Each structure stands twice: as structure tokens, then as C-alpha cells.
Hints:
Elements: E1 4-8, H1 32-43, E2 47-52, H2 57-68, E3 73-78, H3 100-105, E4 115-119, E5 122-123, H4 126-138, E6 144-151, E7 162-169, E8 175-187, E9 190-195, E10 198-202, E11 207-215, H5 218-234, H6 244-253, E12 258-263, E13 269-270, H7 277-289
Parallel strand pairs: 1-2, 1-4, 2-3, 6-12
Antiparallel strand pairs: 4-11, 5-13, 6-11, 7-8, 7-11, 8-9, 9-10
Amino acid sequence: MKPTLVILAAGMASRYGSMKQIQSFGPAGETIMDYSIYDAILAGFGKVVFIIREEFADQFKAIFEPKLKGRIETDYVYQNLLDHTEEFAVPSDRVKPWGTAHAVLCCKGKVNEPFTVINADDYYGRDAFVKAYAFLTQKCNESTYALIGYELQKTLSENGSVSRGVCTSDNEQNLTNISERTKIYRKDEGVVYEDETGIHQVALNSLVSMNFFCFAPGFINFCEKLFPTFLTEKGNQLKSEFFIPFVANEFINSGKGVLKVIPTSSKWFGVTYKEDAEGVQSSINILVEKGVYPNSLWN
């Protein structure tokens, strides 16, 4: 069974100010997602599942169905605020859904094979998809998951702070922890992060999670198991989020298995702020000029 590519595209893009997931960056109007799907098809993936807001469904389908038809199977998952909340009383003034692990939980019943999950607005590079496919088809099982690790210094924005999951691993490349740092930025010659205790240095070559994970389908059930506890503890906080790294840490700490950290040589780039868009477009143009991608991906 071929693995599936799951794309997280339900974010409200509050910092960016528009629906950045479908913004055109390539020479023929390609989105960042197009390049991820193109690389995934070349690597051998058999299906792509878009996790989106239901109100954007028609817009998404009009963009992606014509060009992907006959190339890869497509499906859609809608992430809604009330999904899987059961008896929990959701605060009436909460608007945004519950984060990335909740998005994966919304795939229950739709994704029943090994899968990779990525962000819609991040460019990951072909090497990352080749390595993910190899892992998913050769090593992935319900006690062995993985993430693709990027060098921190290659993932920063010049236009503001970013959130990154900083990874630590043992000698066998098994993840020991993901520390979610929600405010990382360049300072002087180095990189720092801020939290409630102050400003701290972080190594330039630290491997970070860019939300490129490789899971067996049982991970979805594990998200389902942990979500009620999250709601009980943090559900009344208007901006709390049920993150994939949190669930991954719980998986490791519970002794259920390991999560491998697979380094990639790919350069990451993405759109966190409007000002990042010009750099993303320039980076894609360079890849096209080098022949990594054709001028028009789908023609």
C-alpha cells in the first residue's frame, strides 16, 4: 500500500492576513503545496489528503482537482472546532480549531495507511519526501515513527520570530524530546528564543521539527486518546493548541515506541509573514532555473 501525504491547510493565517495556502509563487501560478505534492508523487506517494476549513472546500477543489486528476488520488478532511470535543463545553468565544494534532485526529476513518503530515505553507524539498517515502515503506510501524529534521539556522524568517520544535535525540537517532519554542529569532551572531523566564541561546545547527512527520495510522488513535485530557486541562484557554509534538512526546514517554529523527539536506523555506513572500518566490525561481522543477509543474 502506497503511503499518503496529509497536508495541514486549515490554519486561519492570522499573522499573514490572507489565505496564504493558495497564493501563487511559481512561474505558472503554482502554490507552495503544488511543489510538495509534485515531490511526493515523484517519491512514490499514492494519495494526498487536504485538511481544510469546510468553507474553503469549493475554492480548494477548483484549484487542485483539475491539475491533480489522474496523477494522484485526492481526498479532503474538514477540521471544525467542535470535532471530537464530545461532552466538553467549548468556550463560546473560541474561534480557531485546536491545532495540528487535532487536525490529524480529524483524519480518523479517512487515513488508514502509513502517512506523512506536512504544513501547507512550507517548502520542504525533494530529499525530504524521498527519505519519508523510504521510511514509511521500509521501517514504519506502530512502534516506530519518524520526523524529518532541518537545521534551525536554515529555517528562520528575516521578518520576525517563528515557532519551532527543537529536537534532542540519542545516539541511535531516536527522539528524546521536542521543545516547542514559540518565539525564535536571530540576535547578533546567534539565535535565541523567548519564554516566560527570559531570553535563551539555542545552537544554530540544532535539528528542528518543521511539522514533517511520518506515522503509522495508529497515531491517529493515540491523538484521540490524549485529546480529552488536553481539553480538560487547557480547553478553556482561548488560544491553547493540541500540537503534534506534544502527542509525539507522550508517545515516546509512554514507552509505546520510538520516533526517529531523519536529517535532510533539503533547504526549508516558508511564508510566516507577508514580507516572506518575495523570498519564497525568488527561491522557487532559482530552483526552476536550475532545472529542479519545470516552468509549469502540471503541463
